[in-house]
Write the structure tokens for this entry.
Amino acid sequence: MVKKITYKSFGANAILIEWQSIIDDKILEDILLFKEKITSTEKTEIVDIIQAYNSLTVVYKNYISNFNDEVHQLKQVYKSILKEGKENNFQWEIPVCYDVEFGIDLEEISQKSNLEIDEIIQLHSSALYKIYFIGFLPGFLYLGGLDSKIYFDRKPNPRLNVPKGAVGIGGKQTGVYPNNSAGGWNIIGKTPVDFFDVEKENPCFAKAGDFIKFKSISLDEFYQLEKEVQEKTYQLTKTLYNA
Amino acid sequence: MLKVLKSGFFTTIQDKGRVGFASVGVPISGAMDSYSADLANSILNNSVQDAVIEITLGACKFEFTKTTTICISGGDFSPTNNNMPIPLNKRILIHPNDILSFGKINYGIRCYLAVNGGFLSAKKLNSRSFYPNITKDFLLRKGDFVSYKERTHSITTSKSSIKINSNHFKTKVIECYSGPEFDLLSDHQQKQIFNTTFTISKDNSRMGYKLNEIVENNLSQILTSAVLTGTVQLTPSGKLIVLMRDCQVTGGYPRVLQLTEKAMNQLAQKTTSAAFQFSLISI
């Protein structure tokens, strides 16, 4: 596939780099590799890089005085070869309790879809989800890989308070609320895992390009793990992912 | 220490924000009107990184426990120290037990209280800017204490005063660049955006300002992509949202305009029902 990349100015101190407007693993790979190359140049005038499905936005400290020069430099970086090896990607196992106590929308979506609650849980917890990027809220992962049988439209009226750890389905997406927040997704379970810990140097354990696998746990296991998370003795299970 | 006697409408601690954490979804935050915050810091010879208190529409009261100097810049809410009026944009000597209050609103909607050496609330991810779930508090409340360093040396008062360009508060022209999806708009839609006088809806906060007027919109949503402070999104209803300092790092609505830094600071001094027009400038 020929990867057509365009460069646009985005305000006075950012450059938006765009790929074809589709959600695609090959595009994600290309974006993440480009991002790593830019990061490895350690250019101090670049203060942030915002990555999403089909774009990278490079934010500069100061006004970009010559857009064409900067684009030329970025194109050189794109063509360059990453000196150090590519960063490792991991598969993270996330325990989720799908009990109706937490999965408050399970009964409703089960009735609407003619799928048994157990089937919904089975479909949700057997898939491998790829992390495309983190956005919306600190520590909120945009995941790809939801089974089309369990696409459920967002609720017409968002809830004002979805609890931290709630696992939801919104249209073709699934995800975990990293903190209490308003939200319109169908809630199917809850995880005791912390997706955003501001006290850590790296506040979110996962990164774009990693994978998530949900594991169904009982209510008892949930409360046990919740206690371990609070006492900071809980260790997430991760395995090296070889693409 | 600074003790909050009365919290006001929305009082927070802000600095230059959290740059560099977009990859974990953390908003930048920082002073809404960074021009005024920088001015207050520079009058005190502070670093521009020093944290200030952002006061929205006055109505708050503070007590100081240690000697220092302060400076207030931005909106004019008739500040007084021990009931004596004090000027904006000047160094003010503060003694223990002094009480600073804000009263009548003359102009602007946000002012900045800077203190010699900056306010020293907890730093999280390289910034003291308040943000829910990142800093412990997201608002200053009555009874809160904020620490600062004691400075006992006398201040050199200068007679020179700083002339503030009143245009910063009064302008009805908000300058912007075209945004990434601007070219997808028809000529008619583009003209409509620049010929309409927009007003700020009551749905306005540090995250974003929703505008009241409707722009014809037949654009589809985009694949979720980066948004920046000052990005103007066109929502499916045809209403525009101007993203402000606490905005999320990504969004799915077409990004039709991008405010200049100056325009963001000017808009930050406007609130519900204020009217303005967008004016396109080239990069």
Summary: The longest strand of chain A covers residues 89-97. The two ends of chain A are 18 Å apart (CA to CA). The helical segments of chain A are 25-40, 67-79, 106-113, 117-126, 219-230. The first helix of chain A runs from residue 25 to 40.
